[in-house]
Design goal:
single chain, mainly alpha, Serine Threonine Protein Phosphatase 5, Tetratricopeptide repeat, 30 helices
């Protein structure tokens, strides 16, 4: 659930929808409150919204949770920089570079912070007397007020005015330098909620009539088209949410015709076609979006989104065509543009579906039986490597055949590949728990590995299903002989040393020897006969003692 919310947040962030991104990252944090990446991502989203206080809080949380992660300090530096806390930003970027000295983002951030700090110091040295009205430009609501008022809203489209506002916000004394700018005076009046009169010099225009932007007719027409196209897109989005797909298509198409420099209209229409199961139309739109996006040098994330949508349509079609390769290739191309978690998941799902389909198509019990018989003939001729090949092919054709696993386990045992033989024998028992051959194969492997107590348990388990099986009975007898040999102390020094070394690598033996209760039991057997007598009445204790005897760790005299 947290990963799903995170993926939605990443997708929203990539498309520039920062408020939804914050919401999705917050949902993910509620589900996984110790995940440092989630706080980092939300910090970036807050910073993109210019909500630097919130960005700073999340950045600090990121660093607290993962102090050795360089990106956390990058988020911290960016938040401080947004709040004009230049020295703190420099410190944050430097800490990040101590962890990752070659991180280009940290290097770039540090250079920006140092440059801003130097400029701030220079301004402070040559600062003019503070203007009493400078405080009006402080606070995060300055931009909201200027945007809300119709007389200043138009100024925000003028870069020189925005730059002047930013300078005054950073350094209120800068207001003195801009008092001759009637736009700044107009903004001051809006922020103070008063109408300011102007005296001296050229008669200014009324404050209710701000200086109009000087733009060409061509630029004006272009802006009008974009606004009209955007309105069509918004209407299409509303229809899409209501599942009114035909109406949505009409509006997205209109937006495309009005403005052909925004490929989001094409990808949105592709999304509608996808919902309508018109997969070929969806694919055509996605190809068109990618082609046009490359012509316009669009953001690689937007192109990746179009490719991912195409891959999704191809996956839907693959359920009928049984051809997953085109979808896999498309998802891989999308990931080369932008590594998005949602796209990666779709790629993994496509590859998994392809593998399952291949297994289904290859499944053929008849050919599997033929290959197993070929393996049996090779086994009789002692051609064990060839037999393994045939048994393996048999299992490819029918992965659920316990006999093939049993026979291949016997081959591996003959070849001395005991771990592989043990694995096959256990798989055989898993598939057919009452098949005695599985137990004889497993017991034989364990016996050759000199794990006599384990082999004895395996043979005894097999006898529960087939009490008269002579092979299992013989296995029990051989194991008992070896265990008794250890109990009597009849092992040679070399045999004892080898068995002890092997036993000390056995997790079960390690657990017994590290158990404080069993350590006390062993001490009692040596020093306290009365207590030892009581221990012999405990079946669990004696079972563990017997394992230590079989392993050569303990000898009874």
């Amino acid at each position: 659930m947290a990963d799903e919310a995170k993926a939605k947040g990443n997708a929203a962030f990539s498309s520039g929808d920062f408020n939804p991104a914050v919401k999705h990252f917050s949902d993910a944090i509620n589900l996984s409150p110790t995940n440092h990446v989630l706080y980092s991502n939300r910090s970036a989203a807050y910073a993109s919204l210019h909500q630097y206080d919130a960005a700073l809080s999340d950045a600090k949380k990121t660093v607290d949770l993962k102090p050795d992660w360089s990106k956390g300090y990058s988020r911290l530096g960016a938040a401080h920089l947004g709040l004009y806390q230049y020295q703190e930003a420099v410190s944050a970027y430097k800490k990040g570079l101590e962890i990752d000295p070659n991180n280009e983002a940290l290097k770039s951030g540090l250079a920006d912070a140092q440059s801003a700090a130097t400029a701030s110091t220079s301004r402070a040295r040559s600062a003019q007397p503070p203007n009493p009205f400078g405080d009006a430009f402080q606070g995060p609501d300055m931009w909201a007020k200027l945007t809300a008022d119709p007389t200043t809203r138009v100024f925000l489209q003028q870069p020189d005015f925005v730059k002047a506002m930013q300078e005054i916000q950073r350094n209120p004394s800068k207001l003195n330098e801009h008092l001759k700018d009637q736009r700044v005076m107009q903004a001051l009046g809006v922020l103070l909620n008063v109408k300011l009169a102007h005296g001296g010099g050229e008669e200014p225009k009324p404050v209710t009539e701000p200086e109009p932007m000087q733009i060409s007719e061509e630029e004006k027409e272009k802006n009008e088209k974009k606004a009209k196209a955007l309105k069509e897109k918004e209407t299409g989005n509303a229809a899409y949410k209501k599942k009114d797909f035909e109406t949505a298509i009409q509006h997205y198409t209109s937006a495309m015709e009005i403005d052909d420099e925004d490929i989001s209209y094409i990808t949105n229409r592709a999304a509608v076609y996808l919902e309508m199961a018109k997969y070929e139309d969806c694919i055509k739109d996605c190809d068109k979006a990618v082609e046009r996006g490359r012509e316009l040098r669009a953001d690689y994330k937007v192109i990746a989104r179009a490719l991912t949508r195409k891959g999704t349509a191809l996956m839907k079609m693959a359920k009928c065509s049984k051809d997953y390769e085109p979808a896999i290739e498309t998802f891989q191309k999308a990931l080369t543009e932008h590594r998005n978690p949602d796209t990666l998941k779709k790629l993994n799902d496509a590859e998994k579906a392809k593998k399952e389909l291949e297994q289904q198509e290859y499944f053929d019990p008849k050919i599997a039986d033929e290959e197993r018989e070929k393996g049996n003939e090779c086994f009789k001729q002692q051609k064990y490597p060839e037999a393994v090949k045939h048994y393996t092919e048999s299992l490819h054709r029918n992965p659920k055949d316990p006999k093939a696993y049993s026979n291949r386990a016997a081959c591996y045992t003959k070849l001395g590949a005991l771990p592989e033989g043990l694995k096959d024998a256990e798989k055989c028992i898993e598939l057919h728990p009452t098949f005695s051959k599985g137990y004889t194969r497993k017991g034989a492997v364990q016996f050759f590995m000199k794990e006599y107590d384990k082999a004895l348990e395996t043979y005894q388990e097999g006898l529960k299903h087939d009490p008269n099986n002579q092979e299992l009975l013989d296995g029990v007898r051989r194991c008992v002989e070896q265990i008794n040999k250890a109990s009597r102390g009849d092992l040679s020094p070399e045999e004892l040393k080898e068995r002890q070394a092997r036993a000390m690598q056995d997790p079960e033996i390690q657990n017994i020897l590290s158990d404080p209760v069993m350590r006390q039991v062993l001490t009692d057997f040596q020093e306290n006969p009365k207590a030892a007598q009581e221990h012999t009445k405990n079946p669990m204790v004696m079972n563990k003692i017997q394992k230590l005897i079989s392993a050569g760790i303990v000898q009874m005299k």
